[in-house]
């Protein structure tokens, strides 16, 4: 099972393996409070894409397309996440305020499509 959750929400037992999918460490959150099992910054959008998107909802569809293209080059990381999710719950943790338009949403969608 793959879930997504903001890093600012309290960690819970049901989160399983918590993986931070941001390229930058979230502001105002200590490592102990975040309880991140792994920081997979390599799977985050490139700095160029992140800055271009700037959480502008008008750019959401293009952001998804471009992030998907970047992730195609990181298949080994996607496979690693899929493998983890077969063993238990994986929670993709992110810091964006917008819960519907962020890289964790894109990543979860791709992982679910790969599962078929």
H/E element order: EEHEHHHEH
Report the radius of gyration as a whole number of Å: 13 Å
- In total, the number of strands is 4
Mean pLDDT: 96
Going across the biggest sheet, name each strand in turn: 1-4-2-3
Q: Number of folding domains?
A: 1
The proportion of residues in beta strands is: 5-15%
The parts where pLDDT drops under 50 for at least 5 residues are none
Specify the oligomeric state.
Answer: single chain
Question: Major sheet: size, sense and barrel closure?
Answer: 4 strands, parallel
Note down, in words, how this protein is organized:
The chain is built from five helices and four strands; from the N terminus they run ββαβαααβα. The chain has 116 residues and is α/β, with parallel strands linked by helices. Strands 1-4-2-3 form a four-stranded parallel beta sheet, with helices on one face. α3 crosses α5 (103-115). It is globular, with a radius of gyration of 13 Å.
What is the strand and helix layout of this fold?
Layout: E1 2-6, E2 17-20, H1 31-34, E3 38-39, H2 47-53, H3 60-72, H4 75-87, E4 90-94, H5 103-115
Parallel strand pairs: 1-4, 2-3, 2-4
Helix pairs in contact: 3-5
Q: What would a concise description of this structure say?
A:
The protein is of the alpha/beta class and 116 residues long. The protein is built from 5 helices and 4 strands.
Task: Supply database-style keywords.
116 residues, alpha/beta, 5 helices, globular
């Amino acid at each position: 099972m793959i879930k997504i959750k903001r890093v600012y929400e309290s960690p819970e037992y049901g989160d399983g393996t918590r993986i931070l999918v941001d390229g930058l460490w979230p502001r105002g959150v200590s490592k102990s409070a975040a309880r991140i099992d792994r920081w997979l910054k390599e799977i985050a959008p490139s700095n160029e894409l992140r800055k271009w998107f700037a959480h502008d909802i008008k750019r959401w569809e293009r952001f998804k397309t471009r992030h998907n293209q970047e992730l195609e080059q990181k298949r080994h990381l996607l496979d690693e996440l899929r493998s983890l999710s077969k063993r238990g719950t994986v929670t993709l943790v992110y810091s964006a305020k917008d819960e519907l338009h962020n890289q964790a949403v894109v990543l979860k969608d791709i992982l679910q499509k790969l599962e078929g």
